[in-house]
Automatic annotation (TrEMBL):
InterPro entries: DUF72 (IPR002763), UPF0759_sf (IPR036520)
PANTHER family (alphabetical): UNCHARACTERIZED PROTEIN YECE, UPF0759 PROTEIN YUNF
Protein name: DUF72 domain-containing protein
Length: 301
């Protein structure tokens, strides 16, 4: 059975910092990441979605964590088709004038390629240390299934090779009837990890939690089941605590999924205060001997 790595989406969310999960004495960025890495062997970097970090920053993340710790990194928003604030771009790549938010078509090809160069440069220190898990391509809810969308997924992923890439799709058209088989086949054909998402159902952005691995590692993200998913702000949408019965049931499903891969990455994104960290820790308990212990500790059994 493959190793199961459990972690959360972000270790420095402002609500987490205010929640009291970190001891008061742990009050520096490096100290917090080190504290986190003592408890989990995996984290998802979400800040890279909002701005491209510099290599000095990512090298600092590596220095703050022990051998064996893994970073999954979310791709910059512009790369996956999200309207991106001009202020999120490096100053020398910002277009003069125009709207306050831009998409790929709003940038010269040279500027867009340079953004990719800088993103790859930011990942290099993590990859060189053997700490890069996958780069997450989280596509927007309006990306419907179609030939052009399929090409976009593949072309975007190719810019990240030879690194591992995971794909999260958030439009129901990818999973209706026979479309689900075609979607999974596409990802499998191009060696892309399908991101299974546990989330509220019945909304335009809802996708079913299909537990399948299309590439290594397999990836599962937990968004929770807030009743305010369709109407609340970000805090209300993700305010959810997984119960013991849910986590026990998921632990059994995750062990089965891990049986066919080298690694399974499990990430809690119910990021409201320290709830994701508490739920992740509880899941590790239920996974027991099947779970990877804190970074650097091998699974036994």
């Amino acid at each position: 059975m493959g190793e199961i790595r459990v972690g959360t989406s972000s270790w420095a969310d402002q609500m987490l910092l205010r929640s009291g999960w970190y001891p008061r004495a742990v009050n520096t960025p490096a100290g917090r990441l080190g504290f986190y890495a003592e408890r989990f062997g995996l984290v998802e970097v979400d800040t890279s979605y909002y701005a491209v970090p510099v290599p000095e920053t990512t090298a600092g993340w590596v220095a703050a964590t022990p051998p064996g710790f893994t970073f999954d990194v979310k791709a910059f928003s512009l790369f996956t088709g999200h309207p991106t604030p001009v202020s999120a771009l490096p100053r020398d790549l910002r277009p003069a004038g125009g709207p306050s938010r831009v998409r790929r078509r709003d940038l010269p090809a040279e500027a867009y390629d340079e953004l990719w160069n800088r993103f790859r440069a930011a990942l290099e220190p993590i990859a060189a240390a053997g700490r890069l898990g996958v780069v997450l391509l989280q596509f927007p809810p309006w990306l419907a299934r179609g030939a052009a969308a399929e090409r976009r997924i593949v072309e975007t992923a190719e810019r990240l090779r030879p690194w591992r890439v995971s794909v999260e799709l958030r439009h129901g058209s990818w999973f209706t009837d026979e479309a689900a088989l075609r979607t999974l086949s596409l990802l499998r054909e191009h060696d892309l990890s399908f991101v299974c998402v546990d989330m509220p159902q019945g909304f335009a952005s809802s996708v079913p939690p299909i537990l399948v691995a299309t590439a290594d590692p397999a990836v599962v993200r937990f968004h929770g089941h807030s009743a305010a998913w369709g109407s609340g702000d970000k805090q209300e949408k993700f305010r959810y605590a997984y119960g013991e019965r849910e986590l026990r049931a998921w632990s059994q499903l995750l062990v089965e999924l891990a049986d066919g891969v080298d690694e399974l990455h499990v990430l809690f994104n119910n990021c409201c205060g320290g709830q994701a960290q508490r739920d992740a820790a509880r899941l590790v308990e239920f996974l027991g001997r099947a779970a990877v212990a804190p970074a650097g500790v091998s699974r036994s059994g």
